[in-house]
Amino acid sequence: MARANPIRLGIVGLGRAGVAMHLPELKGREDKFQVVAVCDLAPERREAVAREYGCKAYARIEDLLADPNVEMADIATRSCDHFDHAMMALKSGKHVNHEKPITVTYAQAKKLQAQAKRSKGTLYIRHNARFEPAFMHVRELVASGLLGDVYQVRLCRPQFMRRNDWQTLKKFGGGLVLNWGPHLMDHALEFLESPVESLWSDVRRVAAVGDAEDHFKIILRGRNDRLVDIEVSGGAATRSPEYTIWGTRGGLTCQDTTITLRYLDPKAKLGPRKPDPGNPAQNWAATETLPWIEETVPVKYEQKFIIWDKLYDAVRKGKPYPIALERAVDVMKYLELAKKGTPFAQ
To answer: Is the peptide bond before 320 cis (omega within 30 degrees of 0)?
Structure first.
């Protein structure tokens, strides 16, 4: 059996992303990732994690990046610091695992992309929602052709929350466009399957405090004429399916872990129909009986945080990483366009 060769990880930022997400997700992957250093401004945070993992603790990112034992910097700081921290890590020659958003502006994303091309290390963007179980299952159903020619996709994440943390402040890169936006814009571009032809948006603040937005709608039209509607709200008092897909032979909705399908029997051939210019019947009775199939199925995948496995395979085995850097840059382009001309633009 080959000897384990874990990636030596230095985690920068021990807040919600670093401690509540990255570290728990790495449990059971000690053969692939070894936490050798952590960095945080709060001494109690960095010392607690250092004790648990038996690793070094730093107050400054410069010191962590100077540690020769750190092979990859895991950037989990506030959004406003992402550009500076990732740039420093790339210039130090480290690989970089980078939380979303890649930056807070499109111009910063382009600069980071240019630096990544010059650097010894590789920049990996953590668009981990690409492996959300429902997304993977719904994508498979769309690709199967069961729904016919898909012409509209709706991605929705509603909740009501009077939020008051740093994510409500523009100066820290707060707001739902940079919080949920990178995930769902990445999903949207996957569903669009075509270059973006046009974009419409509405961005506003409803329930949160601060000066950043907590509600947005973005509608993308592809060159293939497919429409993707993204809606994320922190001011929505009612629920809505996370996914709604309409095609020429059927549709689906997905909420939580349940997919509801209604589609025409693939074995049935529909007879020809012609427009009738005559007077219609004096009732609203259906004039055609269609072979609909209705079913409810559970989402077949489980959440296993496989983005870490993909990251390991990219670094250690040279396999392609599924999130292209160019995609993350494009995501920032469209998110910035969505806020352009609003009070919430960075």
So the answer is: no
Residue whose C-alpha is closest to residue 299's, from 166, 133, 62: 133
Over residues 248-290, the pLDDT tens digits come to 999 999 999 999 999 999 999 988 888 888 887 777 766 788 9
Q: Which residues pair with 216 in a beta bridge?
A: 203, 232
**Is 55 exposed, middle or buried (CB count within 10 Å of its CB: 0-12, 13-18, 19+)?**
buried
Quote the Cα angle for 166-129-17, to 5°.
35
Closest CA to 213 of 82, 31, 344: 344
Q: Is the pTM of this model over 0.85?
A: yes
* 164 domain residue, yes or no: yes
Is 170 within the bounds of a domain?
A: yes
Pair (271, 138) in one structural domain = yes
CA distances (Å), origin 253, targets 143, 185, 317: 16, 19, 38
- Chain length of the chain: 346
Residue among 146, 138, 241 nearest 191 (CA): 138
Could you give the CA distance from residue 47 to residue 57 in angstroms, rounded to a whole number? Answer: 6
Residue span of the structural domain in which 40 resides: 7-126+305-323
Q: What is the pLDDT of residues 3-56, one digit of tens each?
A: 679 999 999 999 999 999 999 999 999 999 999 999 999 999 999 999 999 999
